[in-house]
Design goal:
By secondary structure, the chain is an alpha/beta fold. It is 40% helix and 15% strand. Helix 8 links the parallel strand 8 and strand 9. The chain is globular. Pfam families: ALAD.
């Protein structure tokens, strides 16, 4: 037997030397939910450890993320008032605009991404303007998206991340940002966002469940893989700076397909349902939470992800520092 693979697994030193993928705190992005009108943080029952934060708490949490060495944070806003168009999404004194401004003033070296969608802002919970037949009007929604991303840029956001899966959304955002002088502000496109059953806990956290119907008319069918490459082609042509796959665990093949098809950075969103399943199993003693989380996040890296959006980010960064 000339070759024995176990030779390179014999001890920790050699395993570390030949390791193909490395997970670092700066690869991780922590999502935060910021709720307008709250005086204290509120736990999200379906997502143990995740909070709806009042504006007064966002700087404290931003400092935690910065001190943990995370790559950045992504913000989701929950306004006190909602309407059919989600107009609070682009209000100059909206909850996200205030959160961004506070973070950039108090923690200027923290990288702040804003999720650009309307599901948290509309009274019907869909990601855009509804027509009379209940279908989201793609092009009217793009008009509002232009307004929203410019307001995020004016507040000081470092990146915007459109997640509504409207056709032409990257092109519309790029034109709006460039037309207002924000040529250097990057766009992270939710390139392959699937209509997934894994989003349930997020809809509790963001208070964004549709009041009627579902989002299968604009989010992708989980059965499709090749379609993601078409979405990638469109987003690249429209000027995306980063492309994303959401969810993660059931779509690692899609992460790999994008990685093999683009030179752009690839992100993956380790979504709420994936997070909550691990938390629930860990609470019952069925799994080792730390080991499973780090193995999962490393799996995303192995599939080709450069960036990982995950509710585990702060915990994972601490565990990685302990291992260093």
């Amino acid at each position: 037997m000339r070759y024995r693979p176990r030779r390179l697994r014999r001890n920790q030193a050699i395993r570390a030397m030949v390791r193909e993928n490395h997970l670092r705190p700066e690869d991780l992005i922590q999502p935060f939910f910021v709720k307008e009108g709250e005086t204290g943080a509120r736990a999200v029952p379906s997502m143990p450890g995740v909070l709806q934060l009042p504006l007064e708490r966002i700087v404290e949490e931003g400092r935690r993320a910065r001190d943990a060495g995370l790559g950045g944070v992504i913000l989701f806003g929950i306004p006190a008032e909602k309407d059919a168009e989600g107009t609070q999404a682009w209000h100059a004194e909206g909850v996200i605009q205030q959160a961004v401004a506070r973070l950039k003033e108090a923690v200027p070296d923290l990288y702040v991404i804003v999720d650009a969608c309307f599901c948290e802002y509309t009274d019907h919970g869909h990601c855009g303007i509804l027509r009379e037949d209940g279908v989201v009007d793609n092009d009217l929604t793009l008009d509002n998206l232009r307004r929203a991303v410019v307001s995020y840029a004016e507040a000081g956001a470092d990146m915007v991340a459109p997640s509504g899966m409207m056709d032409g959304m990257v092109d519309a955002i790029r034109a709006a940002l460039d037309g207002n002088g924000y040529h250097e502000l990057p766009v992270m496109a939710y390139t392959a966002k699937y209509s997934s059953a894994y989003y349930g806990p997020f809809r509790d956290a963001a208070e964004s469940a549709p009041s009627k119907g579902d989002r299968r008319g604009y989010q992708m069918d989980p059965a499709n893989g090749r379609e993601a490459l078409r979405e990638l082609e469109l987003d690249e042509a429209e000027g995306a700076d980063v492309v994303m796959v959401k969810p993660g665990l059931a779509f690692m093949d899609v992460v790999l397909r994008l990685r093999q098809s683009t030179e752009l950075p690839v992100a993956v969103y380790n979504v709420s349902g994936e997070y909550s399943m691990i938390k629930a199993a860990a609470e019952r003693g069925w799994i080792d939470e730390r080991a499973v989380v780090l193995e999962t996040l490393t799996g995303f890296k192995r599939a080709g992800a450069d960036l990982i959006l995950t509710y585990h980010a702060l915990d994972a960064a601490g565990w990685l520092r302990e291992e260093a």
